[in-house]
Design a protein that fits this description.
alpha+beta, five-stranded mixed β-barrel, about 35% helix, about 30% strand, disordered N terminus
Length: about 170
Amino acid sequence: MNRFLFILAVLQFVILGCSSSKDNSQVIEGDLYYSAFRIGSFYKLPDSVVTAFENSIDTLRVIDPSTQKIKDLFQQLKLEKRLYAPNIDLHINDSTIYTLYLDSLNYQSFKDIKSDSLIRNHLVLKIKAEAKHLTDRFYLLTGKISTTYEKGATLNEGGKFDVDYH
């Protein structure tokens, strides 16, 4: 009887431990940010570019820490099947910018928001999202995402006016 209870307890622990897939998710918050330069996304790029990138990373013999971070991100996006996922940037504080990978449906709501309209109307788009930390400053949307407009200054780098890639 004690052996049965022990096995039952172990099974319950294993089942509960494996069933909570959102345990590694966290809530991140920031302002929509318009970056002039994007790293870590192959959204709207042909397979040939991805293959060339992967081959160049694989052939490097000595990898410095920044190259290793890019390689880790590439591998993580591949593992999550999000290599071609669109993303947005979030301004978290004075010096931190996060990249949040979205699915195509969630991305549609950000695609047409223009920074010049936000700047002209003195608005900032606040974003709150449940996300999984991938590597470094990169996150993957895993749950709900909410947005609110507030009075403030929208930041854009290098005159970037929209979220969509050109």
